[in-house]
Amino acid sequence: MPQKRFSIGRIYLALVLIVMYLPIFYLIYYSFSSGERMDGFHHFSWVHYQALFQDTRMISIVLNTLVLALLSALLATVVGTAGALMINGIHNRLWRRNILILNNILLVSPDVIIGASFLIFFTFLGFKLGFWSVLFSHVAFSIPIVVLMVLPRVKELPKSLKDAAYDLGATRWQAFSQVTIPGITDGIMAGFFMALTYSLDDFAVTFFVTGNGFSTLSVEIYSRARQGIDLEINALSTIMFLVSLILVYIYYRFSTKKGAKRRLNQ
Amino acid sequence: MLKFTGVKKQFGSNVILQDISFEIEEGKFYTILGPSGSGKTTILRLIAGFEFPDGGTIAFDGQTINQVPANKRQVNTVFQDYALFPHLNVFDNVAFALRLQRVNKQEITARVNEALNLVHLADFADRELDELSGGQKQRVAIARAIVNRPKILLLDEALSALDHKLRKEMQTELRQLQRRLGITFIFVTHDQEEALAMSDHIMIINNGLIEQSGTPVDIYDEPLNHFVADFIGESNIIPATMVEDYAVEIDGRQFSCLDGGFEPDEAVEVVLRPEDLDITSVAKGMLTATVESQLFRGVDYQIVVRDTEGHEWTINSIHKTVVGKQIGITFDPEDIHVMRFNESQTDFDARLATYQEGGAHEQE
Fold first, then answer.
1. Interface of B with A (CB under 8 A)
2. Domain residue spans in chain B?
């Protein structure tokens, strides 16, 4: 059936996309306004971008957020991958399921509760709130998602691959590093990217566990927005939107190429 | 070269191998044949070193290797699912073992190409696995296993994933490859036809025990017991009585046969292969039967008949008959193979020796 130019489905899709993207484009639009508020476009100007690049506090917070995200995603990927391999190695089916349930509970429980419990935990231990407390909690809430992304790949990996590696003379470590890990790389990468976005995104947990000296972008934007909207935020949002657009594009180019190859195989 | 002595293996309370003893000689093609769950793959995994025995000894060139892990054994395996490394291309898969040993680059290239040549994949070195057919993957798996020049090559149901035609081709090729390399092949399969076609020696496994061990011809012509007779080829297994040596009573009628060394009036089972039976008129027949079904199979008809005593006989004939018709069955004395109940292979061989000395038997 040939697609009509204006079918109901297409109009619906267009509406959904407009509703989803309109606020962002609204934000972007005003980032180029020379006015101080979003109450009417004055004339085109880069003034908010200039202000943003001179705002060292904001730039250091952006860098903090990125470092935090990369570091927590990296740690969570290591721990989560190890966890997925171990969960897969549990022979007792009941145990395996229960541990997986414990993993998934963390995933679905509200961020506020996780944040509050971390706050209680850190204050109980007398742990100073700051970069390390935020990092620790980001790693903790990212691990379950890494486990969830890696585990299916581990399960898909034929057991005979490991046997084949031993058979060909590999030691346990060689079989692990040269066969198991390359076999689940897709899952590990997906887990890492998910952990990265989780960390960049997170507001609720971070809000609880940041101390005075340390802040992330989401917390900073929130606190600034309470004092009235500053168009510098718009400029920042525009840059972040473009960066994520590029990242997503790269990710899809990368993953669909591999995906297409794999599909050929089947 | 490789010797199993009273090997036992169990997983939990599940006994897989009860008591397995055999010896493997150098340069031969062995087949371990058995139904699924018989323990044949476990034997292979014990040889490879993926599992370790719970009892008995496994010796390689006179040295016990019970606890030697797989990566220290001069044995390589071709897996049922090929187990090729998906992130590596054909060349790198085959080169895997050599790279682990840090063989120099030139030698790796030479040896990988040689192995790929042997399996007729010389031009495929740079291909990704996705670009290969099932048969080609199978060949890569074989090349990967022989590149390391093992003393023994194990093949675990290696051809079962291929279609019929390709499987036949690979059977011939494997046999040729084995002759050319001179390596001992141990092939595990549940396909009796494959076993008969390829092997120098077959071991039939059932319930964790070796039922019979011998050349394909020996096993086909002289199955030791009901299980082997039934498992290898098509067969009619009919209860009978040994009236005396060289005379067997089937359905109350006495026939001469070539088997001896029995007690008088001993209850036995006789095996008659469907291709050895002929259909004739009732008057000329040695037994009378009614045709129950007829199946055209291309080369012949498979005809199932029921005799007057209610025993079912399968007959393979190139002549067709009519369902419901009364027919006569004929066979020659040498077509009858008599099986004693619960006879071990040693006892069977001993009995065979006693009456074959007279030259009454003209096997092979």
1. 48-50, 69-71, 75-77, 79-81, 83-88, 96-97, 100-101, 128-131, 144-145, 148
2. 2-221, 234-273+331-364, 278-330
